[in-house]
Amino acid sequence: MVPKSSALFLTLFICCFTQEVGAQVSLAMEDVVEVYKGDTAIIQCQYSFAQHPNMVMVQWFVRGPGGRRVRISYSDLTMQKVDENTTYTDRISIVGYPNGENLTIVDATLSDEREFFCQVNGLAAGTGEGRTNLKVFNPPEPPIVEAVYSGVSTTNPLPSKVATCETREGFPKPNITWYRNHQPLDPKNGQVNVVTLVTKGPSGLYTVESELQYKVAREDEESVFSCEVSYHVPGAIRTAESRGVNVTVHYPTLNVEMWRDSPMGLVKEGDTVEIRCQGDGNPPPTFTFSREQELDVGLEAEGNLLLLKDVTRRDSGVYKCQTLDLDSEDSDVGASLQLAVNYLDPAVVIPKDSEIMLKGESLTATCNALSSLETSTVWFKDGVEIRRGHVLQLQDASFDTAGRYECEVTVPTIPGLHTSGSVHIIVHGAPELRDVEREVPMMERVGKWLNLTCEARGFPRPVITWNVTGSPNSREVLKKETEDVVQSVLTLKVTMDTVAMCSATNVMGADTKNFTITSIPIVTPTARKDAVDNSGVMIVIIIISLLLIAILGSVLYFLHKKGKLPCGRSGKQEITKETTNKDNIVVEMKAEKTEKTEKTVLLKGVNGNNKPPSDQ
Ligand SMILES: *[C@@H]1O[C@H](CO)[C@@H](O)[C@H](O)[C@H]1NC(C)=O
Ligand SMILES: *[C@@H]1O[C@H](CO)[C@@H](O)[C@H](O)[C@H]1NC(C)=O
Ligand SMILES: *[C@@H]1O[C@H](CO)[C@@H](O)[C@H](O)[C@H]1NC(C)=O
Ligand SMILES: *[C@@H]1O[C@H](CO)[C@@H](O)[C@H](O)[C@H]1NC(C)=O
Ligand SMILES: *[C@@H]1O[C@H](CO)[C@@H](O)[C@H](O)[C@H]1NC(C)=O
Ligand SMILES: *[C@@H]1O[C@H](CO)[C@@H](O)[C@H](O)[C@H]1NC(C)=O
Ligand SMILES: *[C@@H]1O[C@H](CO)[C@@H](O)[C@H](O)[C@H]1NC(C)=O
């Protein structure tokens, strides 16, 4: 039945085709229908006749292998069927409606991308045919970019492989574009090459691999490369961008920097010095270190670090580092650095160790330390700063001048660099007693114990001797000696008037000091009574004397009245006698005075008797 119909159709087709000039039927079909793989595609075929046809046949064809047309469905007023044994038998259906038909293809495949023809035959009313291109799309997987792991060298004269990008299973064939820092990279001779490999899988999907060859420059270290895939979808073009990748760029060292890492500031002997070299190449170059004085002798270094431990002034000089690039051009790059190791030698003090001066002498001491830098010297005595400068003048030496003088030499520009020295000054001289008074008068009661202190200074250290004249009971109870001072305490029991002479002597001379002790005798309570009685007697004597003078005066007056007393020389003599008498009285008054004094002292003693005289 089908072949029959086909034959009929063929004849009708030819008939109508010939009549087409009359064009009584017109068809409306979309040029292109686009659909995702797996989706359902609907191809519409609408027609209209100029004159109403008695019958209408609609047949659908596809372009088969070898360009041959294959019918896939047939319908007329009475029937509607899908042709058997075609590739579409199971996947198509026809929906007819007045003046039109829809061909529905389910589960679109890549092979459906072809022309579909719709042929309408109205016999006498006319015949027409239209076509629609079915396009099937499959978006590819997102692109995967991969940068080369090994570094890319800038010295390569040709573009080098930098990255690859792959997108899988796309239809139709997607395109890959390369970007550098989000700017598209267009293939350019000698600069950018893109090598694309397209493979079509068994399913008909395309996998596109793209390799970017690029002539890297130093700044590409920072560049980010990415690829973008663009693909068609129904009605549009979509793009998908890959992640960005970095490329390790290798470039030769052009400049080398050399610097001292530590210590900061000036270098001194004993320091550990760290010198570093760094080149601007990548990978970082390795270096050889040497000294300018002996360039052929390599110094041991750890990578780019030269470590000089415990440096001395002999380590001063110019240091060099040189790249050790085996594969690079013959032009070695290097840098140099001047190292100055500062020093401070031990201080030299003149005079050395110790020096003897005579009292009153003068001396100039110096303290010097050799240094590579300016130094500052300070003199100390007993920890107290006494002078700044390296010269110390000691004038008019006294015992106070003696002692240990220390000088400290520092380098102000390098804290921690210092040295010191010292000199011991000894002042020779005759002893000098500590107290100014050389005569010490004292009044002490008999029986009292006294401590007499004598302190002398001198060098060589004086010897103190005591010479006690008087009280026999004495001894030295304390003796303290330092380098140039000696102190002696003599304890003495006062028994009589005593002179204790302290003399300090050394080879240079002597000095003495006298303690003159006047003893006060002990007064017993009976002795006191006697003293009171005595004064009573004295008063009586004085009264009697006054009475006698009064009597004598009245007698003389009486004689004078009687005229028995001559008024010549003899009278004068009498007066002289009188005077003599008077003198006697005066003497007696004096004696009284003395006794009074004694009494006062005694009273004092009585007052002092609050604590009984238990000294002995
Ligand atoms: C379809 O093809 C098969 C073999 O491929 C055949 O046996 C069958 O008869 C055919 N059917 C029709 C209707 O032509
Ligand atoms: C035919 O297909 C068109 C477009 O896909 C649609 O709008 C229309 O409704 C369909 N007609 C029928 C009768 O299915
Ligand atoms: C891919 O590139 C070709 C050639 O430049 C172009 O014709 C095509 O439209 C591109 N396809 C996409 C999806 O951009
Ligand atoms: C690339 O390298 C630069 C510098 O090394 C870095 O800042 C940046 O984050 C890197 N980017 C990527 C995508 O790795
Ligand atoms: C101390 O007395 C002695 C005689 O006893 C005398 O020679 C000496 O000069 C006196 N010393 C002083 C400092 O007065
Ligand atoms: C005298 O000195 C000695 C020793 O320092 C001391 O033991 C004693 O008490 C002192 N005597 C007097 C009366 O100060
Ligand atoms: C002590 O002094 C007296 C009088 O000054 C003197 O005669 C005597 O020799 C002296 N004794 C000593 C041991 O110096």
UniProtKB/TrEMBL annotation:
KW RNA-binding (keyword) present: no
Identify its membrane topology class.
Single-pass type I membrane protein
* Keyword check for Ligase: no
Biased-composition ranges for Polar residues?
Answer: 607-616
Region annotation (Disordered) ranges: 586-616
Q: What molecular functions are annotated in GO for this chain?
A: laminin receptor activity
Q: What keywords is this UniProt entry annotated with?
A: Disulfide bond, Glycoprotein, Immunoglobulin domain, Membrane, Repeat, Signal, Transmembrane, Transmembrane helix
Recorded hits in PROSITE patterns, A to Z, give: IG_LIKE
User: Signal sequence: where?
Assistant: 1-23
Recorded hits in InterPro entries, A to Z, give: CD80_C2-set (IPR013162), Ig-like_dom (IPR007110), Ig-like_dom_sf (IPR036179), Ig-like_fold (IPR013783), Ig_sub (IPR003599), Ig_sub2 (IPR003598), Ig_V-set (IPR013106), Surface_Rcpt/Adhesion_Mol (IPR051116)
Of the GO CC terms on this record, one is: plasma membrane
Q: Where in the cell is it found?
A: Membrane
Q: Which residues form the Ig-like domain?
A: 3-135, 142-246, 252-338, 346-424, 431-518
State where composition is biased (Basic and acidic residues). Answer: 589-601
Give the transmembrane region(s). 536-559
Task: Assign the protein's first listed, main location to one coarse class.
Answer: membrane
The UniProt entry, under SUPFAM superfamilies, shows:
Immunoglobulin
Designated name of the protein:
Ig-like domain-containing protein
